[in-house]
C-alpha cells in the first residue's frame, strides 16, 4: 500500500529549549493547514526538552535523535528525513501564526518560480509577549544584493522552501566516511542561514519573495547565539569569504555596504547588551565601511549612533529612562524593523 506524502515537512531542531519548546510545537500543531509532518530533530539535548517533546502524541510528529551537530546539522538531518516537497523551518524558541503554512502554500502555488517564500516577523520577548516591533523586509523584486546586504528572510523561522531549491545547492558531507547530502554548512555555528540563502540566490534561478503579514513570532532571547558579538561577526565574515569563492565580482561590488549594515546591527545588539563602548566602536566601523547607510537608512543609522553615544556617556539608569520613554512613544504606532536588524530589540 502506497503512503501519501504530506505537502509540507516542518523541520524543528531542538537543543536545550525546555522553557519554549512546548509552545513552539503547539504553534505548529495548531496550523489551520493540516497536511504536514513535524520532524523534531533532537540535537543531543541534556535538559528536559526531549521529555516535553514526547508528551505530544500527534501522529504527524516524528522525533529524530542525533548527537549534537549544531543548528545547521539538525536542519540537514531534518531535510534528509523529510517527505514533503515544501520544507518549512521553525526554531524551537519561536512561534507561528496559525495561518502561516496555509499562506505560504498558497503563495508558492501561485508563484511556481519562487523557491523561497518568507514572511514578516513580529518580535516577542522571552515570556512570549509582543514587544511592539515588526520586521518588514523587502517582499518583491528581491535580488542577490538584497540577500547579501539586508537578508530579507531575517530569521530561520520565517522561510518555507521548495525541496527542489534545496536539492540544487546540496553538497556531499565533508565528514570522513559519511555519505549524505548537506544543505546548510555544518562548519558554521552562526550565520548558517545567510550562507545558505546566498548559495540559493547566486547559484540557482529560484526567486525569493515574501508575504506582507507577520506570520512568524520571533523571540528576542538574550541568551541566544547572537549574544557573542565578536564570534557572530567572524562567522558572518566567513560566510562572505565563502561566497567570494564562487561569486568574486559580486562580493567585491557589494561587500562594503553589506559589512556596514552588519556592523550597525551588531552595534544595536551591543546597545541592548548595555555595552556603550562596544556599540560606539561598531557603529564607527560601520560608517567607515560604507557611509551611504546614513542616507539610505538615515533614521535607523542616526538612532543607532545616538544610542551608542548616550550609552557610552551617560549613567546606565539615565540611559534606560530615555530608552523607556522612547519605547513608550513607539508602541503607539506600528514600528518597522529592517530584516538585517534581527534581535535588535528596542533600538
TrEMBL record:
MF terms (GO), sorted A to Z: transferase activity
Superkingdom of the source species: Bacteria
InterPro entries per record: Glyco_trans_2-like, Glycosyltransf_2, Nucleotide-diphossugar_trans
Keywords noted in UniProt: Plasmid, Transferase
Boundaries of every Glycosyltransferase 2-like domain copy: 9-127
PANTHER family the UniProt entry points to: GLYCOSYLTRANSFERASE, GLYCOSYLTRANSFERASE 2-LIKE DOMAIN-CONTAINING PROTEIN
Protein name in the entry: Glycosyltransferase family 2 protein
Organism whose genome encodes this protein: Azospirillum argentinense
Lineage: Bacteria, Pseudomonadati, Pseudomonadota, Alphaproteobacteria, Rhodospirillales
